[in-house]
C-alpha cells in the first residue's frame, strides 16, 4: 500500500541559481553550489569536495560546468546542482554506517560521493545496465578515490531490479525515469529509508522527481518535489 501525499514545488529558483554555479576547479564548483544555496549541509560539501568530477567525465568535456556532460553510450552525468539537490534530500539517510543503492550509476560520481558520506563502515551499491559504464565507474573510483573501493560495488544489471543481495538500503537514488516506481526498489528500501526517483506519469512525457519514504512494511509516503527531465530507466535492450 502506498499512501500518496503530493506536494509540488517550483523549480524556478533552483534553475536560476544552478547555472551560476560553474567553476574553474572542482573546489570552485562545489563552493559555488554552496554559495548559491544548493548545498546546505557540511557533510555534502565535504563529500563533493573529496570527489573530483573531472575524474568521472570523459576527456574533452567541461567537468566543472554546472551542466550535464556526455559519458558515452548515450548516457550523461547529471548537472552538479541535481546531484547536490538529491544528496540534500537523502542526507539523513546517508549517515556513517548506512547502506545506499545508486540505480543508473553512470560514471560512478554520485556513488563515490555517497560512499564518502556513509564512511568506512557503510556500503554503496551502484547498478548500471551498460557493462561498459560499470568498467568506466570502477576505473574512475580507482583513479579518484581508491580508498573507497572496499565500500563500493558496481554491477551490470537492469536497474529496475535493484540489487537484492545487500538490501535493505537506507537510501536509494535513481538517476533515470521510470513510468512507475519499480516494485523491487520499493521492497529493497529499508523501513525508515528514503528513495529519490524521477517518475514519468500521465503519458504526456512529463517527469517528476519523487521522494518516497518507507514508514512500515506496507506503508510508503510519496511526495512530488518538482518537474525534471531524465533518460529512461531500462536495460540494454531498451536502448539498442
TrEMBL record:
Primary localization:
cytoplasm
List the GO molecular function terms. Answer: protein-L-isoaspartate (D-aspartate) O-methyltransferase activity
**EC number assigned by the record:** 2.1.1.77
List, alphabetically, the GO terms of the cellular component aspect. cytoplasm
Q: Which GO terms describe its biological process?
A: methylation
Q: Which Pfam families match?
A: PCMT
What catalytic activity does the UniProt entry give for this protein? [protein]-L-isoaspartate + S-adenosyl-L-methionine = [protein]-L-isoaspartate alpha-methyl ester + S-adenosyl-L-homocysteine
User: Which UniProt keyword terms apply here?
Assistant: Cytoplasm, Methyltransferase, S-adenosyl-L-methionine, Transferase
State the name under which the record lists this protein.
Protein-L-isoaspartate(D-aspartate) O-methyltransferase
Q: Which source organism?
A: Hirondellea gigas
Amino acid at each position: 500500500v502506498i499512501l500518496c501525499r503530493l506536494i509540488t514545488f517550483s523549480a524556478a529558483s533552483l534553475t536560476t541559481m544552478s547555472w551560476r554555479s560553474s567553476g574553474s576547479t572542482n573546489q570552485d564548483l562545489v563552493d559555488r553550489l554552496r554559495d548559491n544555496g544548493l548545498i546546505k549541509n557540511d557533510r555534502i560539501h565535504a563529500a563533493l569536495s573529496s570527489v573530483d568530477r573531472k575524474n568521472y567525465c570523459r576527456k574533452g568535456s567541461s567537468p566543472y560546468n554546472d551542466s550535464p556532460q556526455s559519458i558515452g553510450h548515450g548516457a550523461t552525468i547529471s548537472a552538479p546542482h541535481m546531484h547536490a539537490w538529491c544528496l540534500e534530500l537523502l542526507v539523513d539517510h546517508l549517515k556513517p554506517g548506512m547502506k545506499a543503492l545508486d540505480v543508473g550509476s553512470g560514471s560512478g560520481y554520485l556513488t563515490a560521493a555517497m560512499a564518502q558520506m556513509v564512511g568506512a563502515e557503510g556500503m554503496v551499491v551502484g547498478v548500471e545496465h551498460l557493462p561498459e559504464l560499470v568498467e568506466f565507474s570502477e576505473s574512475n573510483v580507482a583513479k579518484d578515490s581508491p580508498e573507497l573501493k572496499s565500500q563500493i560495488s558496481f554491477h551490470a544489471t537492469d536497474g529496475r531490479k535493484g540489487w537484492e543481495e545487500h538490501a535493505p538500503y537506507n537510501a536509494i537514488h535513481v538517476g533515470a525515469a521510470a513510468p512507475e516506481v519499480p516494485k523491487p526498489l520499493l521492497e529493497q528500501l529499508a523501513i525508515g529509508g528514503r528513495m529519490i526517483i524521477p517518475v514519468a506519469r500521465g503519458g504526456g512525457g512529463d517527469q517528476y522527481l519523487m521522494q518516497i519514504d518507507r514508514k512500515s512494511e506496507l506503508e510508503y509516503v510519496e511526495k512530488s518535489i518538482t518537474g525534471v527531465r531524465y533518460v529512461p530507466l531500462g536495460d540494454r535492450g531498451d536502448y539498442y
